[in-house]
Fold this protein.
Amino acid sequence: MDYDFTTGERGFGRVVFALALDKKRMTERVVIGETQETRRRFENGGGDVFYDETRPLGSLLLGFESDKDGEWNKHGMTLRESYGKAFLFDAERWKTAAPVSDFLRRKYESGEPSAMFAAVKTWEEYLNCFNLNHGADLLTDRLSTLYRPFAVYADCRPWRGESAVATDSAIRDGESSVELWYPVRKRSFEVVVTASSFLPIVACCLHKIDEWKFIFRECKICGKDFLARSRHYELCSDECRKARAAAAKREFDERAKNDGIERLDEAAYYYWYNRLRKLRKAADPERAAAFKAAFDDFRAEAVRRKAAVKRGDTKFTEFANWLAEQRDESDRLVGEQHLYF
C-alpha cells in the first residue's frame, strides 16, 4: 500500500507499529497500518496496510533508523513553521511543506520499517495537529517523542551493552507504554503495538532476546552484527558459510600445492646433491667443481621459479617439467661413466 505525502485530508484511523516475535523460528513480524486494518492483517491476513514483513529476529534493532545530523527534527521544525500560513494547504503553506514531503517520501521508500512508520506518522501528526489549540507546540512535542530514538541510535547500539535511552533526560509520557494484543484464533503470538514512540518497542525486543538467551554476534566473514542462538555461531548467513567453505578450500588447495612444490624441489635438490657427493668421493676435483657451479645456478633458478609458482605467475606443471629437465642435465654433467657408481 502506498502513502500520499501530498494529501491535505486527515485520516480517521490511528496509524500503529505492530511487532510479533517468534522464538522458535527466530523471526519478527512488523506490520504498519491503521489500527483496525493492522488487527485484521494479523487475524485473517486481510486488511490494507502500509507494511507487512517477516524477517530474522533482531532485524529491527540492527537496521533501526539513525539520525546523526538531526534531519528528522529539522524537517519537523519546517512543518511547524508552515503552521504560520493562514489557510490549509494554500500556496505558501504547501511551498514550505513540500521539501518535507519529498524527504518523507524517500524515507518511506527506503523499506526500513522504523523509517517508514516515522514518515507516515509525521505526516499524520502534521495534519492532525493543525486545527488543535497550540497545534504547533503539540506537533513539536509529538514529533520529538517519535524521533528521539533516532538520535540515540546515532551514537549507540543497545545489543552491545549501550543504553537505548538517553541518560541525561527523563522518560516522557507515551515513551514507556505499549498495547498488547494477545493471541486469538490463528494468531499464536502476542503483538506489541505502539502509536507514538519506538522506545518501548526497542525495550521489548531487548527484553525478549535476553529472556530467550540469544546473543548478538559479529560475523567472522562480512563483519555484520547478527542474532545467534549462542556464542558458538560465528557466521550470519548461508552466503557467509559458503564463503568460508570456499576460502577453506582455497587455503587447503594452496597448502597442498605449496607442499607439492616443496616436495618436488627437495627431491630435485637431493638428486643434484647426491651426484656432487659421489663426484667428490671419486677424487675428480675438476669435474666436481664444474658440477658445483652448475648446481649453484640450478638452485638460484629453482628458488626464482618456485616463488613464481606460489605467486601464480607460473603453472605448477611447468615448474615440475623444468625440474625433470634439470635431473637430465645433472646426469649429463656427471657423465655416462659416472651414472651408476
User: Anything to note?
Assistant: DSSP finds ten helices and seven strands in the chain.
